[in-house]
Amino acid sequence: MKETFIKELVKAELKNPIMIEGLPGLGLVGKIATRYLIKQLKAQKFAYLYSPHFPYFVLVSKKGSVRLLRGAFYFWKNEKGENDLILFTGDSQAQTIEGQYEISSRILDFAQHYNVKLVITIGGYRVETKDKPKVVAAATNQNLLDRALRAEAMISPMGSPIVGTAGLILGLAPFRKIDALCLLGETRGYLPDPKAAKSVLEVLLKILGVNVDLSGLDEEIAKADSMVARLQKIEERRALQAEEIRREEDKKITYIS
Amino acid sequence: MKETFIKELVKAELKNPIMIEGLPGLGLVGKIATRYLIKQLKAQKFAYLYSPHFPYFVLVSKKGSVRLLRGAFYFWKNEKGENDLILFTGDSQAQTIEGQYEISSRILDFAQHYNVKLVITIGGYRVETKDKPKVVAAATNQNLLDRALRAEAMISPMGSPIVGTAGLILGLAPFRKIDALCLLGETRGYLPDPKAAKSVLEVLLKILGVNVDLSGLDEEIAKADSMVARLQKIEERRALQAEEIRREEDKKITYIS
Amino acid sequence: MKETFIKELVKAELKNPIMIEGLPGLGLVGKIATRYLIKQLKAQKFAYLYSPHFPYFVLVSKKGSVRLLRGAFYFWKNEKGENDLILFTGDSQAQTIEGQYEISSRILDFAQHYNVKLVITIGGYRVETKDKPKVVAAATNQNLLDRALRAEAMISPMGSPIVGTAGLILGLAPFRKIDALCLLGETRGYLPDPKAAKSVLEVLLKILGVNVDLSGLDEEIAKADSMVARLQKIEERRALQAEEIRREEDKKITYIS
Amino acid sequence: MKETFIKELVKAELKNPIMIEGLPGLGLVGKIATRYLIKQLKAQKFAYLYSPHFPYFVLVSKKGSVRLLRGAFYFWKNEKGENDLILFTGDSQAQTIEGQYEISSRILDFAQHYNVKLVITIGGYRVETKDKPKVVAAATNQNLLDRALRAEAMISPMGSPIVGTAGLILGLAPFRKIDALCLLGETRGYLPDPKAAKSVLEVLLKILGVNVDLSGLDEEIAKADSMVARLQKIEERRALQAEEIRREEDKKITYIS
Fold first, then answer.
1. Which pLDDT band, with edges at 50, 70 and 90, does A81 fall under?
2. Does C255 contact A257 at a Cβ distance shorter than 8 Å?
3. In chain A, which residues touch B (CB < 8 A)?
4. What does the pLDDT read at residue C160?
5. Which of B57, B61, B96 lies closest to D167 in CB terms?
6. How do the domains of chain A map onto residue ranges?
7. In chain D, which residue ranges form alpha helices assigned H by DSSP?
8. Is the pLDDT of residue B201 over 80?
9. Are B52 and D97 inside 8 Å of each other by CB?
10. Which residue did the predictor score with more confidence, B34 or A237?
11. Regions of chain D short of the pLDDT cut 70
12. Residue D81 has what pLDDT?
């Protein structure tokens, strides 16, 4: 394998498809959101993306079966609307600069192949807040951005760069005459963040005019919250102990002087 | 040299060959096991693999002769069984991500060229145990995995990834319609571990239905054990000295306060 | 995108054009100088350079629009003189060695395409001085260097190497029968340094025989100076506090002994 | 520039040429030795090697002229002997693994082009001795190695690997049916080591049956020796001061307890 390539499993007939992309990144926001959509919509897998720029290991299932790292494309036939969906997620981002550009280009090749006119990429946006995560939007054109703002996304106040595939797809899409929108959920980014993913999905579904029950994420959110709480307790205990040790040492020094 | 290539030394006529792969890795398990088999079976060298992704130095023999880092393919004609063997080992793994994918692909090119239907890769699996090393198996299909389990391998309880060529070959084999099985011997991984290699060979030989005397490894195992014991003594002495120094310093501090 | 490429926006008719190159580097001297020239001359953008060797993120404007990192070519029609100008600046340098050579080569392709006979590259030169920054020159031939010296540039006393695109263009230009001159403004290099950029522009404009009002840089210089002053105060306060802590500790030790 | 390439300056007519290679490496032994030979033999430059795998800067002369990093080929017509010489040295080694293999291959392309049957590479061999540096030899065949041993080289007692171009050329030469010998001068490797270079040249000249006055290196050796002496004094003074500080602190602690 010398280059990133896509292997089609079945041929899909799609009506004005919109592509959704969400690879692992900050807080796993893109991956959690995209996987949830795939599951809820019962989207059908129809192609894999393989790349020599992914890390050089293979995954082993609990049953002992093995597979390469990969990305996967799913489609969903929208019975009630104008746009079918192509959803893309995967195990990893590319590990080199040139690999990042190559994989983003290959995803857009596939979008073009299916005559996609709009790609929406999903990711995380690092902030230190504990409020309900806001959703930051950026786009290749103003109309598209306005659609996101009407769906309650906001513009990044700082204009910070978007790193990785979710960003590069927006940078490369105009060369293919494809519009692209990026939705980033605010996240502290340390741990998988289903709350940020839910925020992004709320905006995304409004934009798409698609109904998906998001309550299934609440269990994951509860788990993540309790994980955060546990880690905080550990952290606080550690800080207390460090504090005590410092005080003990201060006593000795005070004795001395 | 711009790409990995294979140089055939002689043409072999092989009957339903199975390929065994074992490059250096954790505890050198793959290399020790494969080299032992080659030696015991008096397998014949018939091809080299060279790559610009190996480290950029050459090896010097005790007699002052020089050679590139390389992999080597050996074959063994199985007089009593159905499957001849191709055995592959070498000096090093690839040093870059893309090189890892390239070398694994080239090995599979060679397997295809000889109409190999099954590749078995060997490596180490990191654990902190001192018990007799178990053998962890993973495979590209269930039948194959069952064969390994019947030969007393076990499934990885954690489903941890398999890094390097031993893993990537399993990931890439299905694209060539080749089955592949990976056998990993439990090892602490710091030092060459012939004990883990022996455990893997016991499982491998059962699977292959081939008889090889493994007692020749026992001398290496004894050497490795005494090396480990020596290192532990050094480690313990160091810990004791550090302890003493700490106690001396504690005395001073106690005096002070 | 597998390779660096240039996308022309409009076709320009240029008369004996000289190319000026200034990418971000030490003290951002090259970029500040080139951007200022572009603005003052109202030069017209006519081509972009894109590369998979730039960092793998995209820039987001305050309005939420997105673009790839890129370089940009501008031209200026010189009504009063013999030479039109092509000005090149951009967001970033290449991130890999091979990328650096590739981008510099691509810039020279474009120069050749427009029949450029002279390229002048701009950058920073690290020194620890606070005097008015001098301008160090290096060139592919003696005549060219003499022109720079008559314009009050000086030769580097140390003969230190020139790193990055500003250097490689000089190294590669002779293969295209293009002359090239490099002008480096002395800078401490930590912060954007418009003062160094102004020094370079004074020399450059003399060489080109072009008049551009440089007073517009003075405001930026004032800002940068006050930034430096502020950072110095912070630094001094930190040093004082550290000093005090040390003295406090010394007292204790003196008590003890 | 996408690949390493060689630019011929003049066409040489050479009689059974032997190629000598010496790039910068441990103690600069290879470069010092080869440059000295070139100077003493008044060898004539006839080709350059350029590569995008060299570092991405350019060199500036004291006069302000600029050039790419490069390698250079020289030839010497041997009036009294059977073999003319091609001598190769340069500014740098390749910066990446793949670049190392590419540059070594390109040097051998050039050797083949001139029908070279023997390449001798020169480098340093790290030891901590202060004795007269010995010369370690390794070769692609036994005859060649014997020639070196008769010229008072020795075989490496440890069989340690040879890193970089001096090694890879030996590894790659057999693919071209070229014999290759490597001569490594013992050096501590920290500083330019003309003494090691002289040792290598003594062996080399015996092998070649060529007379070159090596006394010109003695001045450089004297300079290097005094540099080493100076650095040692600095080092010793530092050690003394550190010792004193430790003793002062010990006193305080003794007081306390």
1. confident
2. yes
3. 1-2, 52-69, 95-96, 99, 251-252, 255-256
4. 85
5. B57
6. 5-212, 215-257
7. 29-40, 97-113, 142-150, 165-172, 194-208, 216-256
8. yes
9. yes
10. B34
11. 248-257
12. 86
Residue C255 has pLDDT above 50, yes or no: no
As a whole number of angstroms, the distance between CA C135 and CA A256 comes to: 59
To the nearest 10 degrees (0 to 180), the angle between helices C216-256 and D216-256 is: 50
- D154-205, pLDDT tens digit by residue? 998 777 899 999 999 999 999 999 999 999 999 998 899 999 999 999 999 9
Predicted pLDDT at B256: 45
Q: Tokens at residue B221, please?
A: 């195992």
- What is the average pLDDT score of chain C? 92
Instruction: Locate the chain D residue with the closest alpha carbon to C145.
Output: D64
Asked if D49 and D6 count as a contact pair (C-beta separation under 8 A), the reply is yes
> Does A241 have pLDDT greater than 90?
no
Q: What local confidence, expressed as pLDDT, does residue D250 receive?
A: 63
Residue of A nearest to C2 (CA): A102
CA D254 to chain C, closest CA, distance in angstroms equals 9
Q: pLDDT value at position A255?
A: 47
**Minimal Cβ distance to A64: which of B145, B167, B253:** B145
Render A138-170 in DSSP notation, one character per residue.
EESSHHHHHHHHHTT-EE-SS---EESHHHHHH
Helix (H) or strand (E) holding C124: strand C118-126
Using an 8 Å CB-CB cutoff, list residues of chain D that contact chain C: 1-2, 52-69, 95-96, 99, 251-252, 255-256
Distances (CA, A) of A195 to A30, A186, B255: 12, 9, 56
Architecture in CATH for domain B5-212: 3-Layer(aba) Sandwich (3.40)
Complex ipTM, two decimals? 0.86
A–C interface: beta-carbon pairs under 8 A = 89
Chain C contact set for D53 (CB, 8 A): 97-98
Nearest chain C Cα to D2, which residue? Answer: C102
Query: Are B59 and D161 an interchain contact pair (Cβ–Cβ within 8 Å)?
Result: yes
CA distance D197 to D201: 6
Q: What DSSP element (H or E) covers A75? A: strand A71-76
- Mean pLDDT score, B84-99: 96
Size of interface A-B (CB pairs under 8 A): 89
Interface test with C, best of D8, D54, D58 (most C CBs within 10 A): D58
DSSP assignment string, C144-160: HHHHHHHTT-EE-SS--
Quick one: closest CA in D to C163, which residue? D57
How much is the mean pLDDT over chain A? 92
Distance of alpha carbon B36 from alpha carbon C123, whole angstroms: 60
What's the pLDDT tens digit per position in B16-51? Answer: 999 999 999 999 999 999 999 999 999 999 999 999
CB contact under 8 A, C52 and A102: yes
Q: Which residues contact B117 (CB under 8 A, 6 or more apart)?
A: B16, B18, B178, B179
Quote the distance between the C-alpha of residue A3 and its chain's center: 24
Rama region for B11: left / alpha / beta (φ>0; ψ in -120 to 50; rest): beta
Q: Label residue B249 by pLDDT band (50, 70, 90).
A: low
Contact call for residues A172 and C1 (beta carbons, < 8 A):
yes
Cβ A101–C1 below 8 Å, yes or no? yes
Confidence of residue C1 (pLDDT cuts 50, 70, 90): confident
For residue C218, the distance in angstroms to the closest alpha carbon of chain D comes to 30
Q: For chain D, how far is it from start to end, CA to CA, in angstroms?
A: 70
Asked if residues D102 and D3 have their Cβ atoms less than 8 Å apart, the reply is yes
Question: What amino acid occupies position A110?
Answer: F
CB contact under 8 A, C1 and A163: no
Q: Which of C154-158, C187-191, C243-247 has the lowest mean pLDDT?
A: C243-247
Q: Which residues of chain D does C161 touch, with a Cβ-Cβ cutoff of 8 Å?
A: 57-60
**Chain D positions in Cβ-Cβ contact with residue B60 (cut-off 8 Å):** 138, 156, 159-162
